[in-house]
Q: What sequence folds into this?
């Protein structure tokens, strides 16, 4: 066990990839279970509920990961514990506000199709995000092996939950949400053993840190309101103009897209704490070089992966979920093309967070989201099911132009020129692979 922990500690990329794989396993095991347990129209409701839940994702990014790294990386233990406590209090406050609003919407039955699910939103979101608080503490401290351990706890509990639900006679989506909330609660308390929890409890609440966290949360809230609503707008419009079955197909395609995005996120997990330290220490040249080098590395991996994924994924979708979801493949192809712009946007957000100017990223998200919201109705009205994915491709390209202009104008970084480094990157991979093969053959 100690040898395994040392391997994860000495190789952060291995830890990051393991975290990504385990999280994908959790998400897609649940997705497979849901598509087999419920009919397509019910699955469509589940994706609508997840779309509402995703409103808190960008806020959580600002409050949890960005804040934890910004206010605890490289700090003394007492300062770290205080930051952990302050972040958790901030998280509960923000989740309480969001949860109250969504609970009210559910109680007033403003969206009859999913009102019974919205009533359960607060318990689902608070339990999930409380667990993410622990995971992100370990990520910000680069103790990624502990996050792997938490994911193992989650996989075991998810297996027990799925077995229990399968035994029920005609389970409802509400049963699933209650079960998941209970699972997150159990894993949360188990995971507290990986933290110096009593030291965190005894630490002081830091009003100054709280004020700075709220600043990041405000930017995250704007991103959430515009970015998440815009990106999920096609789900709601498809449910209104088309059908819940189309919503289920689109939701499935969007979930499989996460596999492509996860690779960039796993590299970003290592990248963000590193550039924060470089910026805070005043090493601006190294800071920019690290940004460019990592972005090229991400694209060198994502491009071939996307191509392979488009070739093999159709029979996998049909085999796992049935012919009723076959059209998800064609939607997924367009979403994959759109996703090729995504790493730049994600790294742009990390870059602006690191330099203490998250509003620059927020401005791009807000503008892009407004365009996406307006164009979604147009594309779906005229192109039907295909129109549910075309707005993403259109607005991602606009975002690419805006971000490229920002880097050239403000940071003197030509993003387009980084393309020329891709062949060099592949040459390095080939040379290292050849060396490893040679060393292996000589053993």
A:
């Amino acid at each position: 066990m100690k040898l395994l922990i040392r391997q994860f500690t000495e190789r952060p990329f291995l830890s990051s990839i393991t975290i990504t794989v385990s999280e994908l396993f959790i998400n897609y095991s649940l997705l497979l279970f849901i598509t087999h347990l419920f009919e397509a129209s019910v699955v469509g409701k589940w994706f609508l509920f997840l779309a509402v839940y995703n409103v808190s994702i960008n806020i959580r990014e600002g409050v949890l990961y960005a804040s934890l790294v910004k206010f605890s990386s490289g700090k003394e233990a007492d300062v770290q514990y205080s930051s952990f406590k302050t972040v958790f209090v901030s998280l509960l406050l923000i989740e309480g506000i969001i949860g109250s609003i969504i609970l009210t919407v559910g109680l007033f039955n403003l969206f009859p199709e999913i009102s019974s699910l919205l009533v359960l939103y607060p318990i689902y979101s608070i339990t999930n995000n409380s667990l993410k608080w622990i995971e992100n503490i370990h990520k910000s401290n680069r103790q990624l092996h502990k996050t792997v351990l938490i994911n193992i706890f989650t996989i075991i509990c998810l297996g027990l939950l799925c077995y229990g639900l399968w035994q029920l006679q005609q389970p409802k989506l509400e049963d699933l949400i209650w079960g998941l909330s209970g699972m997150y609660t159990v894993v949360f308390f188990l995971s507290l053993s990986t933290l110096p929890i009593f030291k965190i409890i005894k630490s002081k609440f830091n009003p100054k840190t709280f004020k700075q966290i709220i600043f990041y949360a405000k930017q995250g809230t704007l991103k959430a309101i515009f970015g998440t609503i815009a990106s999920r707008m096609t789900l709601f419009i498809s449910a209104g103009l088309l059908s819940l079955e189309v919503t289920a197909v689109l939701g499935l395609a969007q979930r499989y897209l996460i596999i492509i995005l996860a690779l960039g996120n796993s590299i970003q997990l290592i990248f963000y704490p590193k550039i924060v330290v470089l910026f805070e220490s005043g090493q601006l040249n190294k800071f920019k070089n690290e940004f460019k080098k990592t972005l090229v590395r991400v694209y060198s991996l994502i491009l071939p992966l996307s191509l392979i994924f488009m070739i093999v994924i159709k029979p996998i979708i049909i085999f796992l979920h049935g012919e009723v979801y076959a059209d998800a493949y064609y939607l997924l192809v367009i979403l994959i093309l759109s996703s090729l712009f995504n790493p730049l946007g994600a790294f742009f957000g990390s870059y602006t967070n690191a330099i203490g100017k998250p509003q620059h990223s927020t401005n791009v998200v807000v503008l892009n989201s407004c365009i996406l919201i307006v164009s979604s109705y147009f594309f779906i009205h005229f192109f039907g099911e295909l129109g549910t994915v075309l707005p993403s491709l259109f607005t991602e390209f606009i975002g690419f132009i805006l971000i490229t202009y920002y880097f050239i104008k403000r940071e003197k970084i030509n993003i387009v020129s980084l393309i020329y480094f891709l062949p060099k990157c592949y040459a390095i991979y080939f040379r290292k692979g050849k060396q490893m093969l040679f060393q292996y053959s000589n053993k």
About this structure: The radius of gyration is 22 Å. The longest helix spans residues 284-321. Residues 2-441 form one domain. The mean pLDDT is 80.
